[in-house]
């Protein structure tokens, strides 16, 4: 089922074009295939042998039938040949399959790991320009396509190719007259059948798409069931779903009629053609132009050739799809990744935490026309707390992203301890900065593992201490399974305040010189709020902290407030200083209690 969907996904993608550049790009994948080439070559030899044995089979079968007219000796002899032939074919097939699967699985596991590792090291600009689903299907559907092709389609294509050529040659050898009749009829019918078959497939793809659409309705409504119920809109959703499923029914019924017509066509034309041939052959046998064995031989070769002509088109289409998939994988591997050190023990650097933005201007690469930051200048001394405030969309989160070097400014510089942020090793710099975001992502796993995300080699003691400092141990210990409690999709759901405290514990473990906080806009209940606030205050001691602030209490306590408006710093100072500025933006915002923005 999953496989069907993958194929249908693939059919919506642009087809592979056999241009020189495309072929060159796709063929570069062979670099990853190189270590296995000899095994693959050996597999090809076995493939060749299985095909040859398949071609010899009808010939021997014909001989066996004719042997009845010669002698017992001859029957035995041909029988033994046939037995040997089957034994050989059985052995060759086994090795062919085992070798192809072995080569493909090794090659694909390597390619999967390489692609994932490449993807995860891509810069943020790459991710902001793409949908997660798209990247996901590169790793699943595209690689599955290649898997099918390398294990089966290439082999089948070559096998059928050999069968067609060998079969036709032997047909001519058997009877030139019959071969000519066969070549005039069977390929034409087979090709028409393939084209008709494709049309039907396209049709069933439409049905699949419509089914996926209706599944979306189910998913959406159940995910947001509280909204549906609150609006008493059950009737609306039912009618939406009914329309969608009726569409499927209409399409599917039409598809059924087409399929019925297809089967009638196949029965009438293809079998008709074969029967016509057999009719001609039987007539020839009757006139003693050919023997009975030759007749059987001929029939079998005809079926072989017909089936292979039908099959080879499908194999070709699959290989073409796999080439498209290969090209898309190469596109990913060609992208420039960030310069990241992949080491569990990668170092952090000891920073004092002096930060300054010097005339920084920035636009997101995906939206080059919108100037997000415009000549932003401010600085923070070691250990200071800087609150960044401003209306929604002013560029507050963008400043945090530039500090993490998710993006580089187009103009101006960010300095950290007097050195340009661009001159730091990106891994070392990020290891020295911790962020407590608004939306904390917890991974499926235990609470212990989630806290240890801040320092993968942390000891049990360190994890417990970090949880203590983050005011998290109290709620963790209340779970029957304590630190082993599973969270995430399949586990327990933590409240917003609890998730934030896990994030704080991660940051505590990291012991960063620079701390980035994105205060939650939605307020927590007052007890949770107090616990989070208290933990944060402890965490901020001795570190330079940048807080995208929404709460007046945080802002009042900050050493410096940077007020942003439309990407420009409009005011800088302490709460007392900024409150003095009549008609100032800060004054306006604080009169609204920073409830918005
Ligand atoms: P809020 O308080 O609502 O979170 P903010 O002050 O943090 O807002 P930013 O998130 O920094 O604002 O966004 C500033 C501008 O940059 C907005 O116009 C936003 O649409 C745009 N922007 C933010 N992230 C991206 C992105 N990844 N790609 C393109 N544009 C973006």
Protein model, in words:
With 597 residues, the chain is an alpha/beta fold. The chain is built from 21 helices and twelve strands. The strands form three sheets. It has a six-stranded mixed beta sheet with strand order 6-9-10-3-11-12. Strand 11 and strand 12 (568-573) form a beta hairpin. Helix 5 runs antiparallel to helix 7 (132-174), helix 8 crosses helix 11 and helix 15 (460-469) crosses helix 17. Mean pLDDT is 85; it is low at 1-11. Adenosine-5'-triphosphate is lined by residues 128, 364, 366-367, 370, 372, 390, 392-398, 597.
What's the overall average pLDDT, rounded?
85
Structural class: alpha/beta
Q: What's the β-strand tally?
A: 12
- Assembly state of the chains shown: single chain
Key attributes of the depicted protein:
597 residues, six-stranded mixed β-sheet, four-stranded antiparallel β-sheet, 12 strands, 64% helix, binds adenosine-5'-triphosphate
Can I get a quick summary?
The chain has 597 residues and is an alpha/beta fold.
Task: Give the helix/strand layout.
Layout: H1 2-11, H2 20-27, H3 30-33, H4 37-67, H5 72-120, H6 124-128, H7 132-174, H8 176-223, H9 225-230, H10 234-286, H11 292-334, E1 355-362, E2 373-380, E3 385-389, H12 396-403, E4 411-416, E5 419-420, H13 426-431, E6 433-436, E7 445-446, H14 447-452, H15 460-469, H16 473-478, E8 486-487, H17 496-510, E9 514-518, H18 526-540, E10 544-548, H19 552-557, E11 560-565, E12 568-573, H20 575-580, H21 585-591
Parallel strand pairs: 3-10, 3-11, 6-9, 9-10
Antiparallel strand pairs: 1-2, 1-4, 4-5, 7-8, 11-12
The site of adenosine-5'-triphosphate has 15 residues, from helix 12.
């Amino acid at each position: 089922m999953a496989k069907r969907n993958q194929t249908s996904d693939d059919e919506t993608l642009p087809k592979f074009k056999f241009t020189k550049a495309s072929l060159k790009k796709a063929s570069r994948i062979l670099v990853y295939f190189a270590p296995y080439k000899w095994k693959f070559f050996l597999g090809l030899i076995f493939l060749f042998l299985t095909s040859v044995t398949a071609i010899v089979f009808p010939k021997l079968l014909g001989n066996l039938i004719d042997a009845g007219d010669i002698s017992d000796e001859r029957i035995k002899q041909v029988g033994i040949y046939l037995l040997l032939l089957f034994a050989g074919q059985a052995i060759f097939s086994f090795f062919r399959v085992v070798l192809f699967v072995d080569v493909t699985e090794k090659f694909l596991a390597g390619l999967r790991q390489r692609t994932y590792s490449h993807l995860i090291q891509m810069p943020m600009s790459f991710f902001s320009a793409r949908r997660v689903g798209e990247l996901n299907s590169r790793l699943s559907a595209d690689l599955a396509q290649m898997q099918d092709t390398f294990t089966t389609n290439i082999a089948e294509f070559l096998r059928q190719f050999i069968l067609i050529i060998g079969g036709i040659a032997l047909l001519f050898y058997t009877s030139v007259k019959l071969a000519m009749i066969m070549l005039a009829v069977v390929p034409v019918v087979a090709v028409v059948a393939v084209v008709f078959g494709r049309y039907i497939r396209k049709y069933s793809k439409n049905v699949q798409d419509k089914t996926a659409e209706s599944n979306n309705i189910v998913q959406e409504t159940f995910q947001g069931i509280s909204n549906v119920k609150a609006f008493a809109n059950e009737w609306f959703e039912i009618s939406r779903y009914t329309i969608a499923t009726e569409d499927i029914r209409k399409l599917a019924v039409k598809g059924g009629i087409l399929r019925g017509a297809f089967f009638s066509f196949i029965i009438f034309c293809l079998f008709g053609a074969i029967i016509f041939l057999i009719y001609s052959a039987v007539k020839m046998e009757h006139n003693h132009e050919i023997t009975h064995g030759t007749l059987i031989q001929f029939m079998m070769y005809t079926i072989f050739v017909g089936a292979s002509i039908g099959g080879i088109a499908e194999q070709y289409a699959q290989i073409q799809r796999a080439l498209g998939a290969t090209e898309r994988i190469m596109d990913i591997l060609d992208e420039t990744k960030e310069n990241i050190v992949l080491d569990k023990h990668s170092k952090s650097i000891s920073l004092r935490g002096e930060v300054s933005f010097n005339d920084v201007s920035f636009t997101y690469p995906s939206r080059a026309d919108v100037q997000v930051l415009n000549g932003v200048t401010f600085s923070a001394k070691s250990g200071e707390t800087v609150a960044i405030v401003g209306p929604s969309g002013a560029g507050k989160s963008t400043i945090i992203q530039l500090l993490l070097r998710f993006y580089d400014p187009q103009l101006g510089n960010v300095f950290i301890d007097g050195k340009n942020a661009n001159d730091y090793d990106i891994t070392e710099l990020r290891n020295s900065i911790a962020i407590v975001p608004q939306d904390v992502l917890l991974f499926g796993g235990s609470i212990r593992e989630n806290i240890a995300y801040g320092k993968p080699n942390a000891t049990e003691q360190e994890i417990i201490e970090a949880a203590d400092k983050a005011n998290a141990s109290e709620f963790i210990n209340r779970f029957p399974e304590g630190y082993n409690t599973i969270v995430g999709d399949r586990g327990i759901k933590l409240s917003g305040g609890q998730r934030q405290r896990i994030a704080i514990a991660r940051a505590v473990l990291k012991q960063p010189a620079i701390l980035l906080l994105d205060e939650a806009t939605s307020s927590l209940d007052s007890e949770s709020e107090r616990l989070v606030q208290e933990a944060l205050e402890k965490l901020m001691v001795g570190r330079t902290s940048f807080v995208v602030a929404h709460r007046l209490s945080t802002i009042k306590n900050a050493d410096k407030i940077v007020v942003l408006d439309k990407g420009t710093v409009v005011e800088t100072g302490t709460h007392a200083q900024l409150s003095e500025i009549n008609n100032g933006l800060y004054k306006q915002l604080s009169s609204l209690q920073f409830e918005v923005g």
